Amino acid sequence: xxxxxxxxxxxxxxxxxxxxxxxxxxxxxxxxxxxxxxxxxxxxxxxxxxxxxxxxxxxxxxxxxxxxxxxxxxxxxxxxxxxxxxxxxxxxxxxxxxxxxxxxxxxxxxxxxxxxxxxxxxxxxxxxxxxxxxxxxxxxxxxxxxxxxxxxxxxxxxxxxxxxxxxxxxxxxxxxxxxxxxxxxxxxxxxxxxxxxxxxxxxxxxxxxxxxxxxxxxxxxxxxxxxxxxxxxxxxxxxxxxxxxxxxxxxxxxxxxxxxxxxxxxxxxxxxxxxxxxxxxxxxxxxxxxxxxxxx
Length: 296
Description:
α2 runs antiparallel to α3 (26-33), α3 crosses α4 (37-58) and α4 crosses α8. The protein has 10 helices and 6 strands; from the N terminus they run ααααβββαβαββαααα. The protein is an alpha/beta fold. Strands 3-2-1-4-5-6 form a 6-stranded mixed sheet, with helices on both faces.
């Protein structure tokens, strides 16, 4: 396995992963399990990228019927307003959005994509999502305008697509309500393409998953300094969590994992099985020792 995997026992690696996917930070995990933070970070990076590759290969030809899509905000290095002038416009620095989709029936997360909250990222995400589906679906998003063209480019007319546009009241004022959003006072359902069933025009499941993500990943917990410093690590950490969520975490309402509900897996994965996704590599052989020069 990878060099980091060779240095740790399977039980130790599983304990690190379990701590990370239950909301512990890298430094807290390192302190609890008596390993270095670099070891925790390297394992998260290697395993997260392995999880992304596995899901990319496995989550194909899906029989989803109702999908909900949303984007969740995060940041790397610093918040956008604090990005140094020399780093302005650099990819992976400042605000970063994770586009995700959830199957309303199985709670499976078919794919995700990191990027800006813009047309390019939305189109790339929808094209990837459509390539994983075996048939026509009903799709619901929020009222973000870039979704309309993105869905048309990715699905054409072969989708029943609607937007749920929320209506908000006046934003609260004063320093004591700095982090309080405006109250949602209603929502309008707009059919965009095809014939979406009004009863299933909803984003409740994907918004609930956003909460699960924020509660289960320290990098997404608000008002902490546990945010990612590099976009590669940020993406890998999300890939690790989503693989755990899909294959190893029992959904309370389903009583099975999302992957089992979708017919992709026949059992609840252990964390050790998740760790086994690490790629195997030949360990490097140590070269011959050089003789020290003897002073004359």
